């Protein structure tokens, strides 16, 4: 037999071979094992412990490698198996060698584990109970308790049977805790710990009540006196198992522990243990021992014990926070928990402590003892650490704790008295918001919501931190998944499920973010209501405005985020079923914007309406608030609609009436909006039904009006038009009181704007509209500055008769003022300049609308003419501007318009003349008529410039044109005030030296001379009576032209020449102007015959004027060149009438030949200029010898033939025709082919030079002076 066989040699031969078997050991190889020998070896006291230990080790190996063979061996006789187990159990009591005892424990546990189905473990427990019932020392019982602990831990179902069926044995376990031996206590506590762990969640509930209560009391005593680390660990583990049950917690928390026997030097947990135990002994008897023990664990250096302590605290508080929180707080557990937060980075410990503190915050004593104030810094520091961990449950729980503290903190106790504390917590919250986990970010947003409370703001308020927090939350919105359900259904099943989960979390985050923004808006409103909080007292005053750390900056940030981030995100969620909570928050936020930044709200309100928010709010109310559902959403929608409507109403143009009207509308909206819970499609029927009161109908009209003004058509135009008409009819038929003015104004606007897509009103309905408008005393209060209103009123003759003139007057009164035109460069060609002005200066939209109205309704023209003649000056000026645009625009009916205007203008001038004669100038009706005279004359000028009559018309004294000009001149010449003013202006520039500083402005001087020149000409034509003459110094004018032309403005030179031209045409004798002269012109008296014939110009004056004009003809200034040629024509005519020889002598002087030479040398373009052609004609006409056929005239003809007739403008063609006609009549041509060439040119010029094609009908603006170009056209025969 091998020495390793498990046999007892002395007795083996007596044993039946059936109890022997050769087994395979764990180390390999076959070993003989005899059960009987093993039993006798264990029972023999003389057997060495080493032999027994070896045998037990071998049996343990067999159980691992050949368990089935052993199972068959033991099955032969159940009694042998029980005897073997009994023997081993006895060895636990008798064996001294600890190694052998350990092997016995191991083999027992293995046997029961392998044969738990065949061997009843009740037998084992009964044997253990017998051992414990014996009077054995505690030291002898230690192996038994260790075996029990291992048995319960290893073998299934033992724990449950143990607890439910072995009450006496449980009592022995409780009694064992009274032994002073800590090793024994450690083993016993281990047994209890395994029983609680292995019996399942309800294990402690099966314990007898007395046993459970006794265990709780003994555990506290054991725990309080424990000094070994293992015992403390086991006690903590058992405590964690017990506190899961409310009944056990009740016993544990009600026990004060009695007198505690503990030596300071036995504490291995912490150096603070002596003081801790001293504190425990000083506690009153009504204080619980358990919180003190839990503090003991928190003070330990073992992290697992700290976690267990925190878990125990949480478990205790969960059962009854109201009952146990106060005890824990009085024991100062919150302070210890906060201390652990500050020094730990363990995920489990942080989560556990957070959970404990969350439960403790439910007790007001937590805050009254200032634990939140003392612990907030540790909490913020731990949150920053928690966010670095991989397990995100810890930071989530941490932000929950921060949220609870911020929400429950009493307003009177500030958490952040200094700015640094608030900055730290806001930085932590921002870090949480930026977490990759959306659930953590959502909890951080909840904390931010609580942080946005006025009582949490430091002094000064950290506005920059608030703004950064809002922006951090808003920055998460783009990554939110807010897809519609249809989009999710289009994905696969798995992907759709993931998307649904992400969408759910995203919407949860969105809702919490909106609640947070709502709190931020509320905080901004509260800060705005307290002047001391609006500005940072430590910021320089000059930096307050627009500073980053200011309330205004926060408000702008809120509006910016609302506009660009929050609204689009919420609208994305509306693709699917809308959320009442999300919409409630959004509408509340929008309401706040109207309070925070009222100056920016007009533009924001318009954007909201144009984005369809009227429609959204109304539909959301109908969908979610009908049947009194979602009672919080309805007032939020109503508040938003009211503020939006009132903002739009305040900025309406023109304003919607007095403050009483605004209050009336606000009350109307406030009372009616809550009851309005129908869809937009139901509005037409609601407007058409008879209701009392009508507030809801009036509310609908106002909302339709305000939305339509911003371009949002809530209903089809035809539905709006017909509904408003029916409403007006219903109001009148029911005999209701007059509609509120704002409602009637809105109704009129709706009718006007929707008329194009609606049928015309019949007689009855038109009558209802007319009566409704008549019910308002002031039509101006119903007016809206919209072109549709013009067309609506003028569309129906009945309305046009009553309100046509009023609406036109209001339109013109509200018309935008046009700026003055820029000065035009005076050296640009007149015709091209005029055409460019016509192209570039488009009429404003208001004028264009009036022009369109006149084209559609010709009667508008008559009304406008009445306004020009009899209206107020400002309105008349606006009408004049409209007519000016119409006339200068050369529309197709401009000629017809001028034909209609002239009789009206003649009538106006006649009335002014009659009033002046009847009442005297400036008296009664004459004064009123005189006020309209400037406008009438301006319109007359426009008419003449737009459609200049042919000269033949003026010869008909019965014609309108003749009478019109006659009365115009008569009115002007009879106006003494005008003549006095003209005299003052002319006299201010009568000195021969340069104009003094007191001289009238240049534009006024030019206009005065031009007006006098026109009056001289017209008076000569119409022989009008002159009441007062103007004295004008002829010698001063000639002297200025002769000596100072280089220092005189070109436009002033033009006006002087134009006046001289008119006087020369009248032979220097006009009742309008009384000329004064001097020796410098006529020489000394007595006058020479030449001077007398030319008086008051004189021969010297004529010579000076000829020299001046020759010099001016060398200039390239267009107006000056034209005026100089015309003035030369008049001068030569004057000389010919007074002294023909002198006229011929004048054109034969050397200056004429030099002038022609210079112009011929300037190129073909200058050669074909109308002024030069007219100059050559004049020289030929008066017999000048300076113009020769060759080379002068032949050069002109060659140039014309080379460039072509078509290249000449109308005026140049007329001048050329006049020149060729003069050549034929006065120049002897040397050859017949020359005559033929002249004749062909004349024939080719024939069709292009009709009077109609050559008329100049433009007005040129040079600075502040308007020139009628027909007055500066070149005079041709």
Describe the structure.
This is Meiosis inhibitor protein 1. It comes from Poecilia mexicana. InterPro entries: ARM-like, ARM-type_fold, Immune_Signaling-Apoptosis_Reg. The chain has 1277 residues and is an all-alpha fold. Among the domains are: 119 residues, Leucine-rich Repeat Variant; 217 residues, no CATH class; 166 residues, no CATH class. The chain has 66 helices and six strands. The strands form three sheets. The protein has a two-stranded antiparallel ribbon with strand order 1-2. Helix 3 packs parallel to helix 6, helix 6 packs parallel to helix 8 and helix 52 runs parallel beside helix 54. The longest helix is centred in the middle third of the chain and has 37 residues. The termini are far apart.
Entry keywords:
single chain; 1277 residues; mainly alpha; Leucine-rich Repeat Variant; two-stranded antiparallel sheet; two-stranded parallel sheet; 67% helix; Meiosis inhibitor protein 1; Immune_Signaling-Apoptosis_Reg; ARM-type_fold; ARM-like
